[in-house]
Amino acid sequence: MTDAFDLTDKVVVVTGGSRGLGRSMVLAFARRGADVVITSRKLPACEMLAEEVRESTGRKALGVACHVGHWNQCDELFDTVYEQFGRCDVLVNNAGMSPLYDSLGEISESLFQKVIDVNLKGPFRLAARFGERMVADGGGSIINVSSIAAVRPTPVEAVYGAAKAGINNMTVSFARAFGPSVRVNTIMPGPFMTDISKAWDLDAFAQTAEREIPLKRGGEPDEIVGAALYFASAASSYTTGAVLKIDGGTAYSPA
Question: What is the mean predicted confidence (pLDDT) over 11-33?
Fold first, then answer.
């Protein structure tokens, strides 16, 4: 099965790719032989990682500024990828955001819309554009990144969780629309120790993890890599419409 995970000369686009889980996936794809397009709102961060990819792996890497919450920027990203590379084999919809708020009643319309735009509207547009082109070109893989907030919602991430539930639903819909040549799957992470964890009360989190997470810790960014390589490669050739939970056992369905 080692060869099944090979991505030599594939073109992979990762949104939210300059840090956190996105960064780990970008590096893993390049190490497996892929050329990568790294996108986020901050171009310098994308370009810095692209340079690291080129120096450490010898693969082509392009940094592109893209705010996925804006429909026109999603279209511009699509155009740039095909102008520069001529194809896309794997799209990873990883960009996301979950702003804090004081209470549900104080969530403004603009905040609500911003969260929906980044977490659901953008991935929808990108999957639609890239997916249709992948079908025309003969195949590909779309990987959405959801969250256990989609199935274990809390009051502090109500809009985010609703948007991520939409991602899970969209995955099944797009898998049916783009099959059999294009596979569409979702990674559903739990708590990971990425940049966002710097804002957590880590002592309180450790206590929660001990009590509620079977593996009793948060995930490390590189622990997302196995799932990403699986969905991106031929190893998952008979998998589509799947939602894979990677959360240390945090979310579960009662027996």
Answer: 96
Element (H, E) at 27: helix 20-31
Point out the catalytic residue in the list 141, 164, 230, 233: 164
Q: Do residues 90 and 36 make contact, with C-beta atoms less than 8 angstroms apart?
A: no
Dump pLDDT digits (tens) for 161-208: 999 999 999 999 999 999 999 999 999 998 777 766 556 556 676 677
Q: Is residue 147 annotated as a catalytic residue, yes or no?
A: yes
Tell me the C-alpha to C-alpha distance, in Å, between residue 201 and each of 8, 190, 204, 211, 230: 41, 17, 5, 16, 33
18, 160, 230, 233: which one is catalytic? 160
> Which CATH entry fits the domain spanning 2-246: 3.30.70.330, 3.40.50.720, 3.40.605.10, 3.40.1180.10?
3.40.50.720
Q: Which of 56, 61, 35, 59 is nearest to 46 (CA)?
A: 61
CA distances, 116 to each of 20, 159, 203, 209 (Å)? 21, 7, 31, 28
Phi/psi for 221 (5° steps) reads -50, -40
The predicted pLDDT at position 255 comes to 36
Clarify whether 164 is annotated catalytic: yes
Per-residue pLDDT tens for 25-56? 999 999 999 999 999 999 999 999 999 999 99
